[in-house]
Amino acid sequence: MFAGRQAELEALSHAAVDTWQRSLTKDSSHLSKRTRIIHGAPGAGKSTLLRELARHLHSGSAEPGQPRLLYTNSAEFSQNTDKIIARLENLARLDADSWKGRLKSIASRVSYSANPGPLGASLDADSSALERPRNIGELADRLPADRWQAPVVLAIDEFQNITDGMHMPEVKLTLQSLHEAVHGLPVLLVLAGLGNAPAIAGGAGLTRGLTTTGIGCLEAEEARGLVRGWCRHFGVDPAGHGERLDRLAADTEGWPRHLHFALQALAGEMVRPGVDGQLSGVRWSVVMERNLELRRNYYNRQQSPEMRMSSYLIAAVMRDLDPDEGLIGVERLIRKHNCNEPGWRLPTGMDVDEFASHLIHQGALQENDKGGVVCPIPSFRSFLVERGEPVPEIERKPSEPEPRPVDKDILNYDDPSDLPSPGGW
């Protein structure tokens, strides 16, 4: 099921169509620096958005100009860049059989496996590298832009892990060539990753023209719509239970992973013997309790050993977090609260910058499109703060100066003003 994200979906679809229109002008400068970045915490629904984009683009017949989507992840892209480029060529021709036929014509030297599914054809590991383009330049030589029958959206998921492949020149060169539209090919690059994906893209040389979209919680109405849509999908009549269903949706804060847990808890009750899939037989208190348990287990899993080691430090950072200060503000808070006390010190082997990045990877922090930093899940922030409380007060005052020697004569004096008055003090 898919709910919400309509604005993001339409923006990506429009960009894909616009890529084709720009390519028809035969001016590659119109195609450059159009890379899209979708970023969010784990569980925000980035991969789901890309799959829905594929379904949306491929819902019609394969016609010239109809965008196609090639989905991959950072590991596959880094390890098999040449195969990804071959799949780009396959999709650009629209017809997987045409690529198949070309391979058959040289079958004595090539083995292949074609998959003409919605995500395009693929080549097996034994295919001859000599018979497919090894880089974007060779692809442009074999299939110039004016011979493409459709634009292709190249979507790379889990982009935060692309750094592992940056030592391979072909990976970085491919990304830069597509981002800069060096060969004028109608390819829209879409990168999906965690909150630091824009920074990683900059490190890969994609420094200008990036359009970033941070995704987080669904709107309340979208969350309610997802729960009601789930009921309709499974033939469940929500009549008379709308208030309970809406409360279940509200408890998720619109976070996609939490919505999954809520519906999982509800489904567990509905398949209980005797309930027979009827909401009237559901024990709602059990559903809510199970939903809360799943959410807490999720938060516990999101806490790495490093986070547990620095729980007081994290609580203080989360409590004082100013969204407008960005990562610089986060690092300032870490430095401010870090000290050599249990729970307050940085994890072993991490500096301030690495710890801030770690919190992004674990979903505790996320950069928004304005450069600020927030905790994308309000209840996760509360969980982290509560786990670090009561926060021990660490005395950071300077040590008291050594007392000056006291003149003994000062202690032996008689002052009538110090004597008790007849009426007492």
Which terms summarize this structure?
single chain; 425 residues; alpha/beta; 5-stranded parallel beta sheet; two-stranded antiparallel ribbon; flat; disordered C terminus
Description:
This protein is of the alpha/beta class and 425 residues long. It is built from 17 helices and seven strands. The chain has helices spanning 6-23, 46-57, 74-79, 81-92, 96-105, 136-142, 169-180, 197-203, 220-233, 242-250, 256-270, 284-302, 305-309, 311-320, 326-337, 352-361, 378-387; strands at residues 36-39, 68-73, 152-157, 187-193, 211-214, 366-367, 373-374. Strands 2-3-4-1-5 form a five-stranded parallel beta sheet, sandwiched between helices. The protein is flat. The termini are far apart.
How much helical structure, as a percent, in the residues?
40-55%
Q: Could you report the average pLDDT, rounded to the nearest whole number?
A: 81
Could you give the order of strands across the largest sheet? 2-3-4-1-5
* Uncertain regions spanning at least 5 consecutive residues: 96-130, 391-402, 406-425
What is the 3D shape? flat
Task: Reconstruct the topology from this structure.
Elements lengths: L5 H18 L12 E4 L6 H12 L10 E6 H6 L1 H12 L3 H10 L30 H7 L9 E6 L11 H12 L6 E7 L3 H7 L7 E4 L5 H14 L8 H9 L5 H15 L13 H19 L2 H5 L1 H10 L5 H12 L14 H10 L4 E2 L5 E2 L3 H10 L38
Parallel strand pairs: 1-4, 1-5, 2-3, 3-4
Antiparallel strand pairs: 6-7
Helix pairs in contact: 1-2, 9-10, 11-12, 14-15, 14-17
